[in-house]
Design brief:
With 255 residues, this protein is of the alpha/beta class. The chain has one domain: Alpha-Beta Complex (Spore Coat Polysaccharide Biosynthesis Protein SpsA, Chain A). Helix content is 23%, strand content 22%. It has seven helices and twelve strands. The chain has a seven-stranded mixed β-sheet with strand order 3-2-1-4-10-6-11, with helices on both faces. The protein has a three-stranded antiparallel β-sheet with strand order 7-8-9, with no helix packed on it. Belongs to the glycosyltransferase 43 family. It catalyses: 3-O-(beta-D-galactosyl-(1->3)-beta-D-galactosyl-(1->4)-beta-D-xylosyl)-L-seryl-[protein] + UDP-alpha-D-glucuronate = 3-O-(beta-D-GlcA-(1->3)-beta-D-Gal-(1->3)-beta-D-Gal-(1->4)-beta-D-Xyl)-L-seryl-[protein] + UDP + H(+). It is found in: Endomembrane system; Golgi apparatus membrane.
């Protein structure tokens, strides 16, 4: 038999990415796919906020050259108000898919789950850091919470607090891009999901992590949480002031 490639022993990273239709959607997904394509053993779980899979995202996934599962679930209209948490249904759909896929396989099942929103910028080093997650690992996030960065404060290898400019009273004052969870933890807490009821914006991370871990158990990564390896960059709102109301071009072009 051919020699086993060393990466076969690597735990798979499962990246759950909620996405929704907007002018920059394909640009954001392209940027993210270009990052993911350089990461060994990564499985992308792309979840559209839609009643059906869109042609744009389906075509994109087909040509992305990545192991990818394309799901869809619509956000109920009553939750689409400003000030309410976003992407809850989509992240939960990704969790449900993961559990369903793995429920009949024997442990241990090496794997790491990461919530990778499509409007962030990710260093490749971040994926090396998260791959050794035993339970729940954490690291700083740049350009978030009204500060240049937020981070877990670490003493003697343990998280003892949070450097944050926004709601420091949160049990886990951390952004969605600031933690990873081992697949084993996800499978051993089958009811752990993102909750709609009683969850305020910015509290979803805490409400989820409270179900699966404690602050004492967190594993600091990124040089004891002193390196920023992910940035909440977001994309500038697109100016479409000169876009014609009706289609005037002679060809139909997907953007």
């Amino acid at each position: 038999p051919p020699p086993r490639r060393p990466e076969a022993a690597l735990p798979t990273i499962y990246a759950i990415t909620p996405t929704y239709s907007r002018p920059v959607q394909k640009a954001e997904l392209t940027r993210l796919a270009n990052t993911f394509r350089q990461v060994a053993r990564l499985h992308w779980i792309l979840v559209e906020d839609a009643a059906a899979r869109s042609e744009l995202v389906s075509r994109f996934v087909a040509g992305a050259g990545l192991p990818c599962t394309h799901l869809h679930v619509p956000t109920p209209r009553r939750y689409k108000r400003p000030g309410l948490p976003r992407a809850t249904e989509q992240r939960n759909a990704g969790l449900a898919w993961l559990r369903q896929r793995h429920q009949h396989l024997p442990p241990p099942q090496p794997g790491v789950l990461f919530f990778a929103d499509d409007d962030n910028t990710y260093s490749l080093e971040l994926f090396q850091e998260m791959r050794t997650t035993q339970k729940v690992s954490v690291w700083p996030v740049g350009l978030v919470g009204g500060r240049r960065y937020e981070r877990p404060v670490v003493e003697n290898g343990k998280v003892v607090g949070w450097y944050t400019g926004w709601r420091a009273d949160r049990p886990f004052a951390i952004d969605m891009a600031g933690f990873a969870v081992s697949l084993q933890v996800i499978l051993s807490h089958p009811k752990a999901v993102f909750k709609r009821r009683g969850s305020q914006p910015g509290m979803q991370e805490s409400d989820f992590l409270k179900q699966i871990t404690t602050v004492e158990e967190l594993e600091p990564k990124a040089n004891n949480c002193t390196k920023v390896l992910v940035w909440h960059t977001r994309t500038e709102k697109v100016n479409l002031a000169n876009e014609p109301k009706y289609h005037l071009d002679t060809v139909s072009i997907e953007v």
